[in-house]
Design brief:
single chain; alpha+beta; 6 helices; 7 strands; disordered N terminus
């Protein structure tokens, strides 16, 4: 039987011909390339958020640590607090005050103004009266013997030491957006009373 009679044609049938073999050997491995790209895409989609999350955590930790260190060793600035700060925090430093210092601390949900000064009893009375005139708290608190409303953390932030002296204090808690005030007065020297105030506002 001849090739023509059998109906078989070169390159057709179960076995590929030489030309077809050469063509198949030159065909690029499409499936392999697609698999490599897919794995790369999945790795990037999973890996990038993980790396970003880890980096953000480290930055947050370092930022918190740096903020705590700065707060612990920050020197209060000498001079009058800016008028805007005095108004926001309701800290009306009296005209007869001396040795005025202040420091503002800002956090995520709250902020605080630290102020200290020295003065005579008249200046302290003026300071308390003016402070009380700006509040709606009733009844008004009075200075209590041996009471220090300033927390150890706040004292550490400002570098204040309450170990010595004849301290009297009061805490003024207000509603709404008005700040809370903690005031401590050292009456050990009647001619040079020491007044320390922490005014805290939340937002």
């Amino acid at each position: 039987m001849t090739l023509h009679d059998s109906g078989e044609r070169p390159g057709y049938g179960n076995e590929p011909g030489p030309a077809q073999n050469e063509h198949m050997s030159q065909r690029p491995p499409r499936r392999l390339n697609r698999s490599w790209k897919a794995y790369l895409a999945v790795s990037l989609l999973v890996g990038i958020p993980l790396v970003y999350g880890w980096f953000s955590t480290q930055v947050s930790r370092e930022s918190g640590r740096d903020k705590a260190e700065r707060a612990a060793y920050t020197d209060m600035e000498a001079g009058w607090p800016p008028r805007l700060l005095r108004r926001i925090y309701q800290v009306p430093v009296p005209g007869g005050a001396r040795n005025i210092r202040y420091y503002e601390e800002n956090a995520l949900h709250d902020s605080a103004l630290y102020v200290d000064f020295t003065g005579r009893q008249q200046s302290v009375n003026e300071y308390l009266e003016t402070t009380f005139s700006r509040t709606d708290v009733a009844p008004l608190p009075r200075l209590r013997d041996g009471f220090n409303p300033i927390t150890p953390e706040q004292a550490e932030t400002a570098g204040w030491d309450f170990a010595r002296g004849d301290w009297h204090g009061l805490k003024l808690q207000q509603s709404g957006a008005r700040p809370d005030l903690a005031i401590a007065v050292n009456k050990a020297d009647p001619e040079k009373l020491v007044v320390r105030t922490v005014s805290t506002t939340e937002y």
